[in-house]
Amino acid sequence: MISLLQEHFHDVEVGEAPDAKSGFEAVTRENWDLAIVDISMPGRNGLELIQELKLEKPALPVLVVSSHAEKDYAHRALKLGASGYISKQSAADVLVTAVQRVLSGRRYISHDLAEQLAGAVAGDSAGTSHETLSNRELQVLRLIANGKSIKEISFELALSAKTIATYRSRIAEKMGLSSNVELTRYAMRHNLVD
User: Fold this and answer.
1) Residue 85's closest CA among 117, 52, 126, 119?
2) Which end of the chain has the smaller Cβ count within 10 Å, N or C?
3) CA 86, CA 66: separation in Å to the nearest integer?
């Protein structure tokens, strides 16, 4: 991706960060024109990073480039202030177009996502159970589906085990699923696992 950006944007300076914490620090330390964020990151997830970046630098455009399907995360990312969302599987010209559009102050979404959003506004789509979850609940669901215990999730998210257990209970209630096996099956069916 870096070489592609350097090829199409000749004076580009690129910085990389291995996790959300380092990414946030780099963005606040430097004066970047654009932040490109993934949803799956070590530590805090990309949705949390978007939220923090928009609080710290509201004018900074954020483009999400993720392996997760648009239908699962794009709407959440856009609501948090992202300027665009593209899949890592997109063609190279899509990335270039998205970056150009976002740098010009506009938003970028695919035609498929535009249709989904229009359908949701018109009331055409029924939606899925995980759409009712908060961003943190969705993160906990994904970690459960990836086989993590409450204690492991607690450590990874720096929250108490009791808090994680509460999130797990809310997730089960909202989705009408009682066991971790059912939650995992649901997450696998909807491509929410890594």
Assistant:
1) 117
2) C
3) 7
Q: Helix (H, G, I), strand (E, B), or coil: what is residue 32?
A: coil
Angle, vertex CA 13, rays to CA 7 and CA 75, nearest 5: 85
In 3D space, the residue among 137, 123, 130, 176 whose CA is nearest the CA of residue 47 turns out to be 137
Q: Where are the alpha helices (DSSP H) in 57-147?
A: 70-79, 92-103, 111-122, 135-145
Domains belonging to the chain, first-starting first, are 2-122 (3.40.50.2300), 129-189 (1.10.10.10)
46: which 2 tokens?
């990309």
What's the farthest any 2 CA atoms get from each other in the chain? Answer: 54
Q: Is 39 helix (H, G, I), strand (E, B) or coil?
A: coil
pTM of the model as a whole: 0.69
Q: What are the start-end ranges of the H helices in 123-160? A: 135-145, 150-157
- pLDDT truncated to tens, each residue of the chain (194 aa)? 888 888 888 888 888 888 888 989 999 998 889 999 998 887 778 888 999 999 999 999 999 998 877 777 888 888 889 999 998 888 888 889 999 999 999 999 888 878 877 766 666 555 567 777 888 888 899 899 989 999 999 998 888 999 999 999 888 888 888 888 888 888 888 878 77
